[in-house]
Design a protein that fits this description.
Elements (H helix, E strand, L loop, with lengths): L1 H5 L3 E8 L26 E7 H18 L3 H18 L1 E3 L3 E3 L4 H13 L4 H18 L13 E4 L5 H13 L2
Parallel strand pairs: 2-5
Antiparallel strand pairs: 1-2, 3-4
């Protein structure tokens, strides 16, 4: 629940100068179920970290790792698999940020958890799913931010928060 409420809180980290000017941007609404209004863009992007989609999941992942009895090699392998899957499926969305299909991470993390550690599948699914998305979709795509033309980019927010949040729900169902 804290992750859901924390999703509205973004803590600013730094600004990145854009490689694209306002006149070059394709100014269309995001096509999808939820229409996100375009915000003014002044040739730089504020990069923030999302409380509910980044900091809380990292803290919970650390707690689960320390209390679940998972070993480091299995956990790192699970995270690495989800990092690769998340990086492959994540896409920069001009004017908005980094997005990823919502069910890719939860389903992949559940399968990784069940395959690599059936007795500890729930904590492994949560850890590998959340950390894998944060690293694979958000951190490895930081290089794309100057070309997005988005006024704000949030690590663990917007396009990846849904996948991180649903990953937690699916991992809880594995118990």
């Amino acid at each position: 629940m804290s992750s859901l409420f924390g999703s509205a809180i973004n803590l600013p980290l730094f600004r990145i100068k854009a490689d694209i000017s306002v006149s070059q941007l394709l100014r269309q609404e995001y096509r999808g179920i939820i229409r996100i209004p375009m915000q003014p863009f002044h040739n730089e992007t504020l990069v923030s970290v999302n409380l509910g989609g980044c900091l809380i999941p990292i803290a919970l992942s650390a707690y689960l790792f320390m209390t679940s009895g998972l070993n480091m090699p299995v956990t790192l392998l699970g995270v690495a698999i989800i990092v690769a899957i998340s990086y492959y499926f994540s896409r920069p969305i001009p004017g908005l940020g980094i997005g990823m299909p919502i069910l890719i991470a939860p389903i992949s993390a559940a399968l990784v958890g069940l395959y690599l550690s059936p007795e500890q599948s729930a904590p492994l699914a949560y850890i590998s799913g959340t950390l894998g998305v944060l690293i694979g979709a958000d951190l490895l795509n930081l290089k794309s931010i100057p070309r997005l033309g988005a006024p704000h980019a949030s690590i663990g927010g917007a396009g990846t928060f849904d996948g991180i949040f649903i990953t937690g729900i699916v991992a809880a169902l594995l118990t």
